[in-house]
Design goal:
This protein is of the alpha/beta class. The protein folds into 2 domains: 205 residues, no CATH class; 270 residues, Aminopeptidase (3-Layer(aba) Sandwich), CATH 3.40.630. A hairpin with a 2-residue loop joins strand 23 and strand 24. Helix 8 runs antiparallel to helix 9, helix 8 runs antiparallel to helix 10 and helix 13 packs across helix 15. The N and C termini lie far apart (57 Å). This is Peptidase M14.
């Protein structure tokens, strides 16, 4: 083990309060923007008020959403007209996205209009009430300039401090480095300055542990949760991928990068509320993959599954309200492997067994897989349910890979033991740190199984089941919108991606149309898609995809694909549990069965 950093930082909110109390200046009105929750911020205001100090402490993370939640009276509201700011170094819709999910937060019937305003640092809100009252409000959105690892420029949310005298004149108005920002900066600096090996992988596992003041706040009625630990996880993980891409001389977004397994471990400090002189704890360790991660409290039920037949496996899978563990998955797929054997076998980077089963039939074959991106949980259960349904069709012909990325899946399970509501993108890729579908050289490890299954079955269609965040995905310390993933920053319903070799375009188009038509029959799905698409369009201002029968869809030529046609499904599943997860994997199952049935007709015409 190599310890790269072990450090503590003082809590910004406590330090700022101490400074105000040491130098009261009652003639001034103070404002602070920081990355803390409403309870801690109000406690600070009340404590200062008892000493005659006027202060307002606001959130630097999603300032407009917090202002609406904390300062806006929506009772009797008739309309809200929002002008969002523009900035030369930010995407035109950046502040529209940051206002998400405003359109879902307002009472039913309130007319919302959002349009671009001037190049300023504030949102402007004009409100009209049913009794004729009007109100105007400005919401400051503090940002600072930053540069990405690959040299791009942008702006990113930051701490800020203001003070005004009795005449309203600003006597202090400047950015303030908060503990949240400093923790990120120090972690990145320690890793960037370390003397890494010259070739990939650079480490077995990079474990970044933080204990931070912070908050997780659900927004009533929207299904959204604002989470500063989750946002830090996402920012660290993707920022480190960008750093190691640059270190390797790779282009930004190169999914072949194999740095090793990056594990942000971000938790809210136990004493972060009520107000304490909490320190921000940072520890970064480079580990061998064989060294275990710290134990996490097990919040998942230890349900045991032991189906004795394919029909029993079908019934058990249909009830799954949480992602099953690897052991549970092995039990659930056992009847399929007993019936059809292991056509292909392999081993993951961390030594986990991986296998595909193959049912040979008289129909045209397909390959079905889940878990390429291991935090996309509905695809794993959806593929299982589809496989057991196909197995019960006498002439069906398919190969099935239950979990393509077992190392990532195991890491996701570890994360879910202490933070099941978070997206956990660090579990997305393999233990080498790459996307297995993009691996282009030996050792192949788990990536070989897909090739083997397609070759063994002769399948010309690969059904690869995926998911994406079920709530907003942000990177608040590096521009807010996830670079390279801006299409997926907010949910937009069940999504289809068709990739095809150029001369297979007619078959891919026909498949997209047939599946989209079949999805109209899935109970609740058309309404679900309409609701999410409306919210997406309200806050993105664009639609960079087509709609087929109400289902978002993109078509992409891929002449390097392992199969002539691939159908990739995307359900907004990350963090969903309970009935919402059952709905998600029911939709995935329906898409597979529709695609399989359609393919039998489509491939005949070629």
């Amino acid at each position: 083990m190599t310890l790269l950093l072990s450090h503590t930082l003082d809590r910004t909110l406590s330090q700022w309060m101490a400074e105000r109390l040491a130098h009261p200046q009652p003639e001034l009105a103070w404002q602070l923007w920081c990355f803390e929750g409403v309870d801690a911020r109000r406690a600070a205001e009340q404590q200062l008020a008892r000493h005659g100090i006027r202060a307002r402490v606001r959130s630097a993370y999603k300032p407009l959403v917090h202002a609406v939640l904390e300062e806006l009276d929506t009772t009797g509201l008739q309309s809200l007209h929002l002008h969002y700011p523009l900035h030369a170094d930010a995407a035109a819709n950046r502040f529209m996205l940051e206002a998400y999910p405003l359109a879902a937060m307002l009472p039913p019937g309130v007319e919302l209009q959002m349009e671009a305003g001037p190049h300023t640092s504030s949102y402007t809100l004009a409100l009209r009430y049913q009794d004729g009252r009007t109100q105007s409000l400005q919401v400051f959105a503090p940002n600072r300039a930053f540069q990405s690892a690959h040299g791009g420029s942008g702006i990113t949310p930051c701490g800020w401090q203001q003070a005004h005298d009795a005449q309203g004149r600003a006597v202090h108005d400047a950015a303030l480095l908060t503990d949240y920002e400093a923790a990120y900066a120090q972690a990145m600096q320690a890793i960037e300055q370390h003397g890494w090996p010259k070739t990939e992988p650079f480490f077995g596992r990079l474990h970044i542990a933080m204990q931070l003041p912070g908050f997780e706040q659900a927004i009533a009625g929207t299904g959204e949760t604002m989470s500063t630990p989750e946002a830090m996880h996402e920012d660290l993980y993707f920022s480190l991928l960008e750093h190691f891409q640059k270190l390797s001389g790779r282009a930004a977004g190169d999914r072949r990068l194999q740095p090793g397994q990056i594990v942000p471990d971000i938790r809210i400090a136990a004493q972060s509320h009520p107000l304490e002189l909490t320190t921000v704890g940072l520890q970064i360790r480079a580990l061998a993959l064989s060294e275990p991660l710290p134990e996490a409290d097990d919040g998942l039920p230890a349900a045991a599954f032991n189906p004795h037949s394919i029909a029993e496996a079908d019934a058990a899978a249909a009830q799954l309200q949480r992602a099953p563990s690897l052991a549970q998955m092995e039990a659930l797929v056992q009847p399929l492997f007993v019936a059809y054997g292991s056509a292909c076998q392999g081993q993951s980077v961390q030594g986990r067994r991986i296998a595909a089963t193959y049912k040979k039939g008289s129909e045209h074959p397909v390959v079905l897989s889940g878990g390429q991106h291991a935090n996309e949980i509905s695809g794993v259960t959806g593929a299982l349910r589809a496989a057991v349904a196909l197995a019960q069709q006498p002439d069906s012909h398919f190969a099935y890979i239950p979990v393509e990325n077992p190392d990532g899946y195991d890491l996701h399970q570890w994360y879910c033991r202490y933070a099941p509501e978070q997206m956990h993108h660090a579990a997305r890729y393999t233990a080498l740190g790459d996307d297995l579908a993009y691996r282009d050289h030996a050792p192949w490890y788990e990536s070989a199984l897909r090739r083997d299954a397609i070759a063994a079955s002769g399948a010309q269609l690969h059904l690869s089941l995926h998911g994406y965040p079920a709530h907003e995905w942000t990177r608040p310390l590096s521009g807010y919108v996830p670079q390279g993933f801006d299409l997926w920053t907010i949910p937009k319903g069940f999504f289809l991606i068709l990739r095809y070799q150029e001369d297979w375009q007619p078959q891919a188009e026909a498949l997209a149309e047939r599946v989209a038509q079949a999805l109209l029959q899935v109970p609740g799905l058309p309404e679900y898609n309409r609701r999410q698409l409306a919210l997406y369009q309200s806050h993105s201002g664009r639609q960079p995809f087509e709609l087929r029968r109400g289902t978002p869809c993109t078509m992409q030529v891929d002449n390097q694909g392992l199969s002539p046609v691939s159908l990739i499904t995307e359900f907004p599943d990350q963090t969903v549990v309970g009935d919402a997860l059952v709905f998600a994997h029911t939709v995935q199952r329906a898409a597979v069965l529709a695609a399989y049935a359609a393919w039998q007709d489509i491939v005949q015409t070629r």
